[in-house]
Specification:
- By secondary structure, the protein is an alpha+beta fold.
- The chain has 2 domains: 34 residues; 158 residues, Jelly Rolls (Sandwich).
- The protein contains 1 helix and 15 strands, in the order αβββββββββββββββ.
- The strands form 2 sheets. Strands 1, 2, 4, 8, 9, 11, 14 and 15 form an 8-stranded antiparallel beta sheet that branches. Strands 3, 5, 6, 7, 10, 12 and 13 form a 7-stranded antiparallel beta sheet that branches.
- Strand 12 and strand 13 form a beta hairpin.
């Protein structure tokens, strides 16, 4: 092989490497764009400021969130609670679209269940629920809530909250109307993935 042949072959290999590197960069950037995430809702807070609600089957507690104008997929719901009861509290997650300022259709098609345990030393505990297996896609204004699945007579659950952050919505039972506590909002937040449109 002559020096010119060797030089040409080396230049071809270098060019091929450069092209492959470019393809990998484009693929990685496309993948990152498709998997871009953000958090909606209120800031998580483990402070001692709590807003308590009776644990009644069919009762719900939640907050209103803005998911944005483009569709997103819900990945994880997180919030802090102070469980003063002696039992584990089972619940399920609901996500409603907002129509004329009121929660309407539940966008969760499969039951998303979770539990809140009783700690030995009661304190605000972080509860996180994986929503990614359920393919819950939303946009615009939504209300994300937890619904109690069992009544615990004369027991209540404290939700960590902040001041002047949109308020907390609740229902005292399955047939009750939604009520809003305007000043303090539970620290619900949801990790979401932006979807490619």
């Amino acid at each position: 092989m002559t020096t010119n042949d060797y030089s040409a072959q080396r230049q071809a290999v270098t060019s091929l490497r450069f092209i492959l590197f470019g393809i990998l960069c484009i693929a990685a950037s496309s993948s990152m764009a498709q998997n871009k995430t953000k958090t909606i809702g209120n800031k998580l807070s483990s402070n001692d400021r709590n807003n308590s609600f009776a644990i009644i089957q069919g009762g719900q507690v939640g907050i209103r969130m803005n998911a944005g104008n483009k569709p997103v997929e819900l990945l994880k719901l997180s919030f802090h609670v102070d469980n003063q009861s002696q039992d584990t509290i089972p619940f399920k997650v609901n996500v409603y679209n907002i129509v004329d300022k009121d929660p309407k259709d539940n966008l969760v098609k499969q039951e998303v269940k979770g539990t809140i345990v009783r700690l030995n030393k009661p304190e605000n505990q972080l509860v996180s629920i994986d929503l990614s297996p359920y393919n819950i896609q939303v946009k615009g204004d939504i209300l994300v809530s937890v619904e109690f699945l069992k009544t615990q007579p004369e027991k209540s659950l404290g939700f960590a909250c902040g001041l002047f952050n949109g308020g907390t919505y609740y229902k005292n039972g399955p047939n009750s109307n939604w009520v809003k506590k305007a000043v303090i909002g539970a620290d619900f937040n949801v990790l979401v993935k932006k979807l490619k449109v």
